[in-house]
Amino acid sequence: MDPVNYSVLLEEDHDSHDYKADPSILSPKAISIIGRKLKYHRILSFLLLLTNICFFGLWQKSKAISTTCIRPELVYTPAKNIIRYEKKRLFRDIENNVYTGEPRPEHDEAWAKLIEPITIKVSERDLNAINATSIAFKDGSGYIAETAVYHELHCIKRVRRHLHLSHYYPNMTEDQRLREGPHIDHCLEYWREAAMCRGDTTLATFQWAEGKPFSHVYSDHECVNWKLLDIWARGRMVDMSTYDMLEGILVK
């Protein structure tokens, strides 16, 4: 029988598993190459693990923000996709403010413009989402509705006019005057419920003035981006100067 000759296998004749199983058959060069590869894989694995940990931390942080700072949407609104919150300082400044002060043309124009989108058009799907009905348009294009914030603004405008009845309603009849009280009471109650519903817990700090603690008129609040909301509402607003386009019984 011919003698059996043994020789070291070339690197390409072995897989990595065989190298690890019997390193004694490897050349020093091969061992060096494998060592560098193993070191590279360890570093790569560590970096991947570190990256995953970082991404997980960021995801948890974003999840916490989204659950604590965004409305839980317990009640449906068609405006939900455009609602954005921002930090805003409110000053309550009545000087040089078009919405405050005595009756004047620019004051009346500003308030009329502000509450223009009080009535908007919604779809049947919107009504189904809140399990409600409303008055339809004759052309079948939708239904009339209003958003609460514009009703609140309407009430503010109405109370401001109540402070100047003789200016705005110089020919008010006795019957109209009797109805005026309940209307204003309704507006005040609307605000009370709205304030308690929102439950704004923004802190107000104090300062000494005239020997007494007075709260600062300004404070930072978490506010809805009004511009986005107003643009959305104006895109759906309905001219209610006439009711002829509505279905149902019209009382003349």
From TrEMBL:
InterPro entries: UstYa-like
Pfam family, any one: UstYa
Entry superkingdom: Eukaryota
One Gene Ontology biological process: mycotoxin biosynthetic process
PANTHER family: TAT PATHWAY SIGNAL SEQUENCE, YALI0B05434P
Family as reported in the entry's similarity comment: Belongs to the ustYa family.
Name of the protein described by the UniProt record: Uncharacterized protein
Organism: Delitschia confertaspora ATCC 74209
Source taxonomy: Eukaryota, Fungi, Dikarya, Ascomycota, Pezizomycotina
